[in-house]
Structure formats: structure tokens, C-alpha cells
Amino acid sequence: MRPKDEARITRLMNYIQQYQLENGKAPTYRQIQKDLSYQYLNSVTRDVASLKERGLIVMDETGPWKSIYIPDNLRKGKTIKASLLGTCACGEPMTAVEDIVYTCALPVEIFGESPRFLLTAKGRSMIGCGIYNGDIMVVLAQETADPGQIVIARVHEGEDATAKILAKDENGYYLRPANDELNEDGTRKYNDIHLDGDWSILGVVTHVIHQARLEQPV
């Protein structure tokens, strides 16, 4: 029996972990062969089998192709770093504070492995989505979003930032609040923001960390 190349097997394990972190899926056998310069595909199969025997990976063999996964028990305790970048308006757009207040570790099991940042909600325009003044919004950093998602967007020629629901109609994209409160004269307190000029998406709100309250504001 040919002896196992332990250094190569360790390199393969590190590669699979990093590939999943960056791509959200496991590499194929041929991708492994290409990126790690295996001469033969059979060598990839043998090393993957060694990792499986040691309980370091699991295989999904239900489909037409075998898929590699890192077991959940190996992901427990793993964290990603996320920085609190200050305050973001949940009302009228305001200049975003982008100084790092502090950096904390978020558990991968809850928040996933993709890059995230934190913002403190200011205002009441998103209470219909459960975001209250002082809550911490966990934001998935990305430049695109689908209508219906809660986004952090730069508006007013990129000067101000706000948290709103991304919406779209026949006139294009706009930002919609989640609060139907009215002023004394019957007009809406929080208006839609129609996106013209230079605007951009900074990320999508995926989680909200609430402050402890005796009761939720109405």
C-alpha cells in the first residue's frame, strides 16, 4: 500500500475549508486537481477518502456527483470579526459614521461566514420590520440586493446613508420605510425615497440585535 502524504492531505483540508469560506460551496474533484496541481484525479479521490475516514469531511452521495462538506461539529465555535461602524438612520437619511467603534466576534453558526459589519439604528422608520432605535443591525456587505430586502443605502449623491426596504415600480428603484405613522396634518411621517442621481447599496441587513426592553414601542 502506498504511504499517505500527510503534508498533502493537510494542504487539501486547508484548501477545502478556504474554498468553502470564499465560495459558499465545496470544490469539485477536478477543481482540487487543478488548484493543488495533482497529476492524477485518482490521487484526489484517495486523499479525499482519507479525510473522510478521519471524520474531517463528510460526503453527500445522494446526487449524481459526490459533494464534499465540512461537518457542522467542526464549525462550532468558529467566528468571524465584524466592526461596529457607528450609526445609520432609520428615519431621514443622515451622514453615516464610519469610524470603527469596536470589533466583535460573531458565531458562524448563526451569522454565516460572509463579511459583515454592524450599525446602530437611529430613528423609528423601520419599526414595522422590528428595527428599533438603538438596535444593532448586522449587515451582509454587498453591492446588490433584491426588492423586499432591507438595505443600507447611500443616497443624496452618496453623502447620506439610511436603512430602508428596497422596492421597485415602473419608475425604477426606491427606498420604502416600514412605519405608517402620520403627522397631525395627515401626511406620512416617513416618506419613500426616490433614487435619482448617485446612489449605492452598501449591504443587506440580515439580523437585528435588540436592546433589552420591558415592552416594545408601539
Would you kindly provide a brief summary of this structure?
The protein is built from five helices and eleven strands.
Summarize the biggest pleated sheet: 9 strands, mixed
Distance between the termini: 71 Å
Shape: elongated
The number of helices is: 5
| Gyration radius, rounded | 23 Å
Low-confidence stretches: none
The multimeric state of the shown protein is single chain
- Strand portion: 25-35%
Characterization of the model:
The protein is an alpha+beta fold. It is 21% helix and 32% strand. It is built from five helices and eleven strands. The strands form two sheets. The protein has a nine-stranded mixed beta sheet. Strands 1-2 form a two-stranded antiparallel ribbon. Helix 1 crosses helix 3. The mean pLDDT is 81.
Fold blueprint:
Blueprint: H1 6-23, H2 29-35, H3 41-53, E1 58-60, E2 67-69, H4 72-75, E3 79-89, E4 102-107, H5 108-111, E5 116-122, E6 136-141, E7 150-155, E8 160-169, E9 172-176, E10 193-194, E11 200-209
Parallel strand pairs: 3-5
Antiparallel strand pairs: 1-2, 3-4, 5-6, 6-11, 7-8, 7-11, 8-9, 9-10
Helix pairs in contact: 1-3
What attributes characterize this protein structure?
218 residues; alpha+beta; two-stranded antiparallel ribbon
